[in-house]
TrEMBL record, chain A:
It holds the Pfam family Sigma70_r2. GO terms for biological process: DNA-templated transcription initiation. It comes from Alkalicoccus saliphilus. Residues 128-180 form the RNA polymerase sigma factor 70 region 4 type domain. GO terms for molecular function: DNA binding; sigma factor activity. Residues 23-89 form the RNA polymerase sigma-70 region domain. Belongs to the sigma-70 factor family. ECF subfamily. InterPro entries: RNA_pol_sigma-70-like (IPR039425), RNA_pol_sigma-70_dom (IPR014284), RNA_pol_sigma-W_bacilli (IPR014294), RNA_pol_sigma70_r2 (IPR007627), RNA_pol_sigma70_r4_t2 (IPR013249), RNA_pol_sigma_r2 (IPR013325), RNA_pol_sigma_r3/r4-like (IPR013324), WH-like_DNA-bd_sf (IPR036388). This is RNA polymerase sigma factor SigW. NCBIfam families: PRK09641.1, sigma70-ECF, SigW_bacill. Keywords: Sigma factor, Transcription, Transcription regulation. Gene3D superfamilies: 1.10.1740.10, Winged helix-like DNA-binding domain superfamily/Winged helix DNA-binding domain.
TrEMBL record, chain B:
Residues 5-37 form the Putative zinc-finger domain. Belongs to the zinc-associated anti-sigma factor (ZAS) superfamily. Anti-sigma-W factor family. This is Anti-sigma-W factor RsiW. Keywords: Membrane, Transmembrane, Transmembrane helix. The chain crosses the membrane at residues 89-108. The keyword Glycosyltransferase does not apply. Pfam families: zf-HC2.
Length: 187, 210
């Protein structure tokens, strides 16, 4: 995998634009997923994912081949998502934005069969609830929790993506899951 | 019935499993006597499990195409350069000719398909897996055949490369360049290294390379 990625990156660096499509294919799902979990909105997640790849392309020469490409692209995507959250109302995540359109948006993530069986509905509601609670976290805890528990990355990788020392990442994960526990833990 | 802040901090270390064994044992001993901590840990574990159960989303369809459409446009000379880099040994002839790519399924029992790359008139006999260059035909530039034999009766202005196949030439054949047959794995790998990118790549991009 790494060798393949390396080869593609070299091609892109040489100016083979078409080869970049292969990189997008390899990482688009993960990048989109991180963006979606950070932003809680499909449209914005798509925007941020595209922007992340465009930036990766224009800055490909600054990518250090000795590091994992995933770390690099996740870092670009996470930064863009955090920027976007900053530009919104600062108290966005504490507000009433949850519900309404966000719900619809969440449902639209799934292939919409006409009538969902009861079991599916419960599952969807559960999923929606998880996302709502993630969205309640302050962005700095949110990013750490997403990378740790949804992307299953190591503390070292997360520290590289977020450009933070490992102990800081740990603290953020601890605080994030403590905050989530208050909502999710006593069901 | 909350416990002390210190213990809650320790609990996260315990949950991360990066606590020295003796400390972990001490903490476990504490939990035996402290329902608050026991409960707290249970809730944390449950929280983690719930978060981990969140489903993964796939990127919306067309995202790759969207990104590719938005990339800065390369000018013709950049494209040309890329093409040269990828095909150093094809440089002389091919760029000025239209190149056709013909890919036919051999049709039987999942055998690999015959692939022909060349500019000119040729016939593909699928049942015999032979590409025939008729006597009155001229292939301008190089000819590449993959997974089949070639029978040359006409004229080839460039080289012939046959991968996983053989070539036959009639007395009427005129071949200007070299003939190369690539039939064992080492030769094939070497050929691939020389060619580097997949053989169809530059020709499949909507004729932009013309
Ligand atoms: Zn206690």
């Amino acid at each position: 995998m790494d060798a393949v990625v390396k080869r593609i990156v070299r091609e892109v660096k040489r100016g083979n634009q078409e080869a970049f499509a292969e990189l997008v294919e390899l990482y688009k799902d993960k990048v989109y997923h991180i963006a979606y979990r950070m932003l809680g909105n499909a449209h914005e997640a798509q925007d941020v994912s595209q922007e992340a790849f465009l930036r990766a392309y224009t800055n490909i020469h600054s990518y250090d081949e000795n590091r994992k490409f995933s770390t690099w692209i996740f870092r670009i995507a996470t930064n863009l998502a955090i920027d976007r959250l900053r530009k919104k109302k600062p108290d966005f995540h504490l507000e009433d934005k949850v519900g309404g359109t966000e719900n619809l948006d969440y449902y639209s993530q799934f292939a919409s069969e006409e009538a969902l069986p009861e079991e599916q509905v419960v599952k969807l509601e559960m999923q929606e609830w998880i996302q709502q609670e993630i969205m309640q976290l302050p962005p700095k805890y949110r990013s750490a929790v997403i990378l740790k528990y949804l992307e299953d990355l190591s503390l070292k990788e997360i520290s590289e993506i977020l450009n933070l020392p490992v102990p800081t990442v740990k603290t953020r994960i601890h605080r994030g899951r403590e905050a989530l526990r208050k909502k999710l833990g006593d069901v | 019935m909350a416990c002390s802040h210190e213990y809650y901090k320790l609990m996260h270390e315990y949950l991360d499993e990066n606590m020295p064994l003796t400390e972990a044992k001490k903490f476990e001993a504490h939990m035996q006597e402290c329902p608050a901590c026991e409960q707290h840990l249970k809730e944390l574990k449950k929280t983690v499990a719930i978060v981990q159960s969140a489903s993964h989303f796939e990127a919306p369809e067309g995202l790759t195409r969207e990104v590719m459409n938005q990339l800065p446009k390369q000018n013709q000379s950049q494209k040309w350069q890329n093409w040269l880099r990828r095909h150093p040994f094809l440089v002389t002839a091919a760029a000025f000719f239209l190149v056709f790519l013909l890919s036919l399924s051999a049709g039987f029992d999942g055998e690999e398909e015959i692939m022909v790359k060349g500019d000119g008139h040729f016939i593909v006999d699928e049942s015999r897996k032979v590409v025939i260059i008729p006597e009155d035909s001229t292939i301008q530039g190089d000819l590449l055949i993959r997974n089949g034999n070639v029978e040359v009766n006409g004229e080839i202005e460039g080289d012939i490369t046959v991968i996983h196949g053989e070539h036959l030439q009639a007395s009427t054949a005129r071949i200007a360049g070299d003939i190369e047959e690539v039939n064992n794995t080492m030769e094939w790998i070497w050929y691939e290294i020389k060619e580097f990118s997949r053989e169809v790549l530059p020709f499949s991009s909507n004729g932009e390379e013309e």
